[in-house]
Every structure is written in structure tokens, then in C-alpha cells.
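ok trying this again, last paste got cut off
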Amino acid sequence: MPQQAPIPITKASGEQELFDPQKLARSLRKAGAQEALVERIVADTMAQLYPGMPTKKIYQQAFAQLRKATKPSAARYKLKQALMELGPSGFPFERLVGALLQVQGYQVLVGQLMQGRCVQHEVDVVAEQEGVQLLVECKYHNHQGRVSDVKVPLYIKARFDDIRHRWEDEHKGELQNGNHLFERTHKGAIFTNTRFTGDAQQYGSCSGLLLVSWDYPQQGSLRELIDTSRLYPLTSLTSLSRAEEQRLLEQGLVLCRELIGQEEALLAAGVKSQRLKGVQEEIAQLCG
């Protein structure tokens, strides 16, 4: 890799950090870019760097080069931004989280009202598998500078404990009589498309809450779950305009794979007939 004095760049949060060419190279490799392309993009990026350069601009320049060379890799590289583009509503993100749990063998319901011992709660995703009920809160942000601090898991655990207490109250007799049909493990989880603070991660680990963010935990992060399952949001596609993506989301579609063979939906979103083949080819390459 080319060597030069470290240059400070500006993150979405406004904080500054030194540009790390290896970090950029790793993200390009994770997207599936070939080594020669990785080296060229890193070299071009370093040649255009200036103190205080926004990370968003660095991303845009790298993405533009990647898109010219290989659309599937560009779509994977775009994943973090694609998640931001699922908004403004958080419902598409809830659908995505539900789909990620479904491929792990859970039976999933999205957007459920559940009665607690004290009050009623809206639960974003309820997932059940072999006597385990997972109650999931989805914290969606459409700006990279937003993070979830320790107040979020504190609040969510209190809500989920209230629901668990209600269930235990209702089945107290059966549980005391040793009726194994009513044995159930209740777990809480929080999924976010950005990040948790260190205190939030520490509290989640201590309290038994499953926390999943863009890059946490090291194994099983949101990025890894999406890459492994190939359940990419349709906003990852590089062959669709922002307006076309929004029209598809308005039709209730969220995942790339939901667009396979859906020519009518694409046409209704404003995609011209002569572009359909190219869009479907990118979908097949990304989801195949």
C-alpha cells in the first residue's frame, strides 16, 4: 500500500480520526473486490485526501470506482448506506431483522402488541424457536452519527421484563405443577443499524440482552448476518435510483430477493422496460 503521513479525516459524528488505508482496503475486500482493484482504489483515495475530508466523501469516491468495475461488489460495499436508505420509517428495518431471524429457524411475527404485568407494549419482532421466545427491539437510524447509549438497553430490558412477568403470572400454576409444556425461555434483543456505546454493550452483556449492531458482536454482527444470508435490502442495488427504491418500499417490498421476477413491481416503481434485464441480473448476482 502507498505510504504517507497520517491525515485526519472527519467522521459522520463530527469526530476526527486518522485515515487508515488498511481499513478502507478491508472494507473493499469484504465487498468482494479483487486485490488489484482494491489497491487502485486505495491509491486513488490517498492521492485525493486532504485534512478534515469527510468520511462520506471518501466512501462516495470509492463507491463510484467500485460501481464502474463490479456492481455486485459495489452493492455489498454500499450496505451500510443502504440500511440508512430504508427510512424514514423503521418498519422496513424491522422486516429485514425478522427475515434474518427467520433464516435461523425462528418463527417470526413483526409489530406485535403484548400485554405486560403493568402495561401493554409494542414489540417490533417476536421470534420463537424450540421453547425460546426472543423479543426484539429495532433501533433504526437514518444518520450514521446516531448511536444507542446505555439508556436504550436499560429501558428495553424493563419493558421485556414486564412482559415476562405477565407470562409467568398467567402460567404460574402449570409451572409449579411441573407441566413442561409451559416451560419457556424469554430473551430480549436489540438490533440497530448503527452502533452501541461501550456502556450499552457492557450492560447488555451483563444483563443477558442480545445486542446486534452494524459491527457488533465480532461474530454475528448485522453486517455479517446480512452477508452470510444474502438477505440484502433492495436499497443496496446500484441499478436503481433513490426514487425507484422508495416507490418499491412503498409497495411493501424490502429485500432484493423479493424483486426476483417482479417486473410489474419494478415497472410500477418507474424502472423503464429496457432496464429490467440489467436490474434482474444485478439482483441474481447479489442474491444468488
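PB: full thing came through this time. The first strand starts at residue 8 and ends at 10.
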